[in-house]
Amino acid sequence: MNQSSILDRLSALDTTIVSDALDFLNLKGATYGLLPLWACPKIVGRASTIKVGPKIDTTPTTHLLTPVIDAVETEDRILVISGGIDGVSCWGDIVSNASKEKRIRGTIIDGVSRDIDGSREVGYPVYGRGVTMISARNRMIQIESGKPLEMRGVTVHQDDFVIADTCGTVFVPADRIIEVLELGEKIQYRQARMVQAVRAGHPVSEVMHDTQFEAIREDRLSQTDVVSVKGNPKKASAGDKELVALFTGLDTPGVSDALDKLGIPGQVFNIMPLCNYKKVTVGPAFTVRYVPASDPPGSVGDFIDDVAEGDIVVIDNNGRTDCTVWGDIMTQYAGLRGIAGTVVDGVCRDVSRVIADEYPLFTAGRWMRTGKDRVQVGGVNESIGIGKVRVEPRDIVVADANGVVIVPRDRAREVAEVAQKIEKTEACIRDMIARGASIAEAREELGYHKLQRKT
């Protein structure tokens, strides 16, 4: 098979599918933390490996990376750079422009980049650990190129295959690419069938049963009958609706201030929205606790059939970033059943689907590797901890573009009342400013500095 055909087939997949295929084949290739440094398109190509490191003398040298860029002669290259130093750039806009001219497809750095706006302006994809302003000049040099190197625990050889998208970066050994493609295409087809079943109302506990995944290994399709049930038979209770309604018109900053004033710890640390959501999501918590997988592994997602309409699924995966517990099938099913949103103390995947569906998802990050056979559900509707906050079943969750707060159910009315007062005061301050008052005058008159203080 020619290289162009292989790259076309790889381009038709995404990192989550390729990661799953590697898992089935017991191959390492999925990396964590190498993400797009601007809103980059997906890139697929062959690795040109470059190792960099600290400069230990003052002898003038050729700028790192430039010899490799100049030597590129084909249009299938992705530069793969290891050895980055925290805070020191090993990529910038000039080399992005040069790479663009050479028709290089993109750059993956186990390190940081600077001048990222310049890369964005010319449409050159850069993936890595982050951005900086500090130059590599007189700090870093190119050590070698075209040799095997380590990228976040994965060994990458010259000419290995690379795929990177919004979920991260995956490397595929060149001598296993056909196996990975064939299995990935089976997984993609199977998952498309699973999404169709979910959309048709089939219970997700059956759709995502382990036997469905194991069937991929055997290259067979189950003949599951799709039921016609739509919506969610589990409706929100009158009590839940009443408490949720109390938070109408509020957002997480206002609720956070109310929690501070009442001395209630509820601000969830290090869990942020997947998108800059314009709406506030409020609902009672359906709590889920994940634990490391047993032998044989247990279920990863059957709990969702028990989640009521309007609930927010709150998942304690112990902050794990090495495997995901939420993906596109769960997103699709949750949306169809009227589940309000999901909060994960851990990472998610299939973010393109989540964003397209506008499903409210709040996590500690994103990655493509599945949690199947790595974690399993350890308990539901029990006390859990997420982001340094204790969450009890049916506590009230408030989540928006600013983050997530948890309101103890037995204090919900009190918190909502205080938050409403704070919001009204702040609205009055904004009105005074609009009518010409200074911010100091408005804050003094309305007691702004005391709003969140404990009474």
From TrEMBL:
InterPro entries in the cross-refs: RraA/RraA-like (IPR005493), RraA/RraA-like_sf (IPR036704)
The entry's keywords: Magnesium, Metal-binding
CDD domains: RraA_family (cd16841)
Binding site for substrate: G327, D328, I329, M330, R349
Residues that hold Mg(2+) according to the record: D350
GO MF assignments: metal ion binding
Cofactor: Mg(2+)
Pfam families recorded: RraA-like (PF03737)
Keyword Metal-binding listed: yes
Keyword field contains Magnesium: yes
PANTHER family xrefs: 4-HYDROXY-4-METHYL-2-OXOGLUTARATE ALDOLASE 3-RELATED
Protein name, as recorded: Demethylmenaquinone methyltransferase family protein
